[in-house]
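Model it.
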Amino acid sequence: MSSSTPDVTARIARLFLYPVKSCAGVEVADAVLTETGLDLDRAWMVVDDQGEFVTQRELPRMALVRPTLKHYDVVLRAPGMLALHLSIEAVEQPVRVRVWDDEVSAFDMGDVAAQWFSDFLGAKLRLVRFDPDHRRLSRMKWTQGIEAPNQFADGFPLLVASEASLDELNRRLAAGGHAAVGIERFRPNIVLAGVDAHDEDRLDVLRIDAGEEVQLRMVKPCARCPIPNIDPATAESSPVVSDTLQAYRSNEIVEGAITFGMNAIVLKGEDQTLRVGQAVTADWRFD
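Modeled.
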């Protein structure tokens, strides 16, 4: 770790990855870090019959698709459905698909997976796997010119949030007579403990002692869409979360959008294992 005294000392409180984009996440005790984020994070994605990605924004029942990680496959379960097993090593024919403004190379996962998602979500859909030979980069406007590849994440390899930020939101929800919400609504990869509410907004490089030092640069506040309004347990939506955040989380850096959490890129530490409880240090960013 750095020999200088850091401005902030924290620890990893929780780790999440999301094998299928916009489906439920998997909380893990440890995860291997790759240049595109946590291993298997957003490796799969659901697309419509035009190859365009779909998410909980259009199909909130995607929140009810719950993955489990096994040694050689990912098992997907959903209410009223038999389990769908996805082999981590097997794909079918190559395809081109679109995620936001990017057209990328992928592999179709076959008719069984397509029918499973189509039946559960009530639309004609396919499941695809990201082609690891394709290089889809984060916007260099935010990465300071560093090439930071992603798989099917919205735009950056990692999302970092803090327990204190969620506590502050829940304090405000309670003051308005609303129930508390979980961090799952915000779909972070790394949840920090030991920092004050929204301190993650002001940090520069996170340094994590994972045997060899890991360095993650915080690059862009995460502008929030309506997905945090969707209850991950029921797939029902209510505007209360967005309405509450609107009162105090409008961010001029992203043209007044509501933000919660920070997107991050990997500077150093590929193939290292992140674990809950690891120490994190950082300095304040001044820009």
